[in-house]
Specification:
The chain has 2 domains: 28-171, Helix Hairpins; 175-236, no CATH class. It is rod-shaped, with a radius of gyration of 41 Å. It has 236 residues and is mostly helical. The longest helix has 82 residues, at 90-171. A hairpin with a 2-residue loop joins strand 1 (194-198) and strand 2. It has helices at residues 6-35, 38-83, 90-171, 176-189, 211-217; strands spanning 194-198, 201-202, 232-234. The chain has a 3-stranded mixed beta sheet. The structure holds zinc ion (ZN). The site of zinc ion has 9 residues, from loops. Residues 195, 202, 204-205, 207, 226, 228-229, 231 line the site of zinc ion.
Length: 236
């Protein structure tokens, strides 16, 4: 078996790096989802705002009830005076009647408002109750989701530890100089630090590779780099 070339070792290192990057981004996503759930926040906010609205309507209802009973407590004695024969003076009776009419107009306005409030109350109570159910459902789902996410985070964390250990072991097979080249290219180009020579061109940047560099890429102990993008080249 021919000795494993430097570039093959670098490609294996790149595979581990890719695998680690994929695992890390999956873990980041799981951790983001562990921190909070948009669905649950939305269900909480919806319930919270309906709850506030319901309290508001109930407060208005109580205030109207109170105002109506104040008017009733003024109307009842006036009506009694009007009909029990205790007042005989026609002018005074006329005054009482006029006062009663005014009070009853006020009461009737408040009663109309109360009817509107009661109907609004019924609508909001129905929405409030369905929002409460939705919130309970969202909380239940979140509990299940949290358990799944925690399991997934553990699984990804373990896999990441394993691939990082393999990566560290792989690094020991590569010369310090080649590692420096590899790291600096990865920093610049992101994922792909090693490129295939395809049809005489660098697969990374599609620029033609001179013959001398192509020949170098065939040497197992040499590192050939694309003159344009500097990626490490390999053939085969
Ligand atoms: Zn290139």
């Amino acid at each position: 078996m021919p000795p494993v070339s430097q570039v093959t070792d670098i490609r294996t290192l790149q595979e581990f790096d890719e695998e680690a990057a994929t695992l890390r981004s999956a873990l980041d996503e799981v951790e983001r989802r562990l921190r909070g759930s948009e669905e649950l926040e939305q269900a909480r906010a919806a319930f919270g705002s309906l709850d506030a609205e319901l309290n508001d309507i109930r407060r208005t209802q109580r205030a109207l009830d109170g105002d109506i009973s104040v008017l009733n407590s003024r109307i009842q004695p006036e009506e009694k005076r009007l009909y029990d024969g205790s007042v005989r003076n026609p002018k005074e009776l006329g005054n009482i009647q006029h006062e009663l009419e005014l009070l009853k107009v006020q009461r009737s306005k408040l009663e109309d408002q109360l009817l509107e409030v009661m109907s609004r109350l019924e609508t909001v109570e129905a929405s409030h109750s369905s929002a409460r159910q939705q919130l309970a459902r969202a909380e239940q789902e979140r509990e299940i989701e949290l358990a799944e996410l925690e399991r997934e985070a553990t699984r990804l964390g373990d896999a990441l530890t394993r691939v990082e250990a393999r990566r560290e072991a792989q690094k020991l097979k590569i010369s310090a100089q080649a590692l420096r080249v590899y790291d600096s290219i990865r920093r610049r180009h992101g994922a792909m630090a090693v490129a295939h020579i395809q049809g005489g061109m660098c697969a990374g940047c599609r620029v033609a590779i001179p013959e001398a560099i192509r020949r170098r890429a065939f040497q197992p102990d040499q590192l050939a780099q694309c003159p344009n993008c500097e990626r490490i080249l390999f053939v085969g």
